[in-house]
Amino acid sequence: MPEFIDYTVEDHVGVITLNRPETMNALNRQMYVELEQAFRDAHRDPDVRCVVLTGNGRAFCSGDDVRQIMLGEQRDETVARLRDAKPKPTPAATAVLDCDKPVICAVNGAAVGWGMDLALFADIRIASESAKFGELFIKRGLVADLGGLWRLPRVVGPSKAAELLFTGDIIPAQEAERIGLVSRVVPPAELMPAAMEMARKIAQNPPIALRYMKEGLRRSVHGTMAEMGEYVGNSLAYLFTTEDHKEGALSFVERREPVFKGR
User: Fold this and answer.
1) How far is CA 189 from CA 5, 78, 110, 114, 156, in A?
2) Where do runs of H (alpha helix) occur along the chain?
3) For residue 252, what are the β-bridge partners?
4) SS3 138
5) pLDDT of 232 above 90
6) Is residue 63 left, alpha or beta, with left meaning phi > 0 and alpha meaning psi from -120 to 50?
7) Which domains does the chain have, with CATH numbers?
8) Which one, out of 16, 18, 93, 168, has a CA that is 20 to 30 A from the CA of 28?
9) Cα–Cα dist 138/144, whole Å
10) C-alpha span between 124 and 182 (Å, rounded)
11) Burial bucket for residue 83 (CB in 10 Å: 0-12, 13-18, 19+)
């Protein structure tokens, strides 16, 4: 049984909760392994159509457990693991990024260091009014993971990303919303209801098309217009053959709510 990560599925929504509140959900080695496994499970589960990621307690994630991973007995293991992973990102980051279901991050408190990177791996971020964000790696003499160096410039722009990465400044939820880091800010009591409402709305859509839509968004960041055109053409050629497409068209003509089955 996982010790630090809770994973449940309800209404086609997988909810992954970081559950080490006494450390502000700081990540140790075991927690990284459990987080990776939870996202692998969500990726493979045909019943899951959307994922909500959040934290238990007053923080979303305070990053790495400095005492264990950076200074303690896990330091050498961490260094060896990172060397072995090259040129790939860290395994937990890979699992989140590989998940082909839309991922919503409900940021309930501080998201700093790798905690901010983790939030950036999500497709959509909703923040509590008590949330705050900071790329603290420079303060530890390190570089950010793919969240900061790859995703952040595409979310807030290169100049703002450089400012956050070079200074290590911590910004409040309202500033995060202003620069486009999060989609919206809500009172703390409304965070999970808002995230789950959005997740259920997404999960009502045809799951095959959702996976293709997410992959298309990924490719739009890196591919040329010609490559994107080829991807769109190939995707539509397949999606037109699915039962979900037929159901979507029929439900529109028949003026009723569609029932998508992932076929």
Assistant:
1) 22, 37, 16, 25, 27
2) 29-44, 75-85, 91-98, 114-121, 146, 152-156, 158-167, 173-178, 191-203, 207-222, 225-239, 243-253
3) none
4) helix
5) no
6) left
7) 5-203 (3.90.226.10), 207-253 (1.10.12)
8) 168
9) 8
10) 7
11) exposed
Q: Beta partners for 106?
A: 54, 126
Q: Please count the other Cβ atoms lying within 10 Å of the Cβ belonging to residue 11.
A: 12
Distance, CA of 114 to CA of 240 (rounded, Å): 40
**Model confidence over 161-200: pLDDT tens digits?**
999 999 999 999 999 999 999 999 999 999 999 999 999 9
Q: How far is CA 148 from CA 72, 76, 156, in A?
A: 25, 24, 11
Residue type, 80: A
**pLDDT for position 11:** 94
Average of per-residue pLDDT across 21-45: 96
Q: Which 3-state string (H, E, C) describes 184-233?
A: EEECHHHHHHHHHHHHHHHHCCCHHHHHHHHHHHHHHHHCCHHHHHHHHH
Length of the chain (residues): 263
Q: Tokens for 70?
A: 């950076």
Tell me, what DSSP letter sits at residue 27?
Answer: B
Q: Residue 16: in which H helix or E strand, if any?
A: strand 13-18
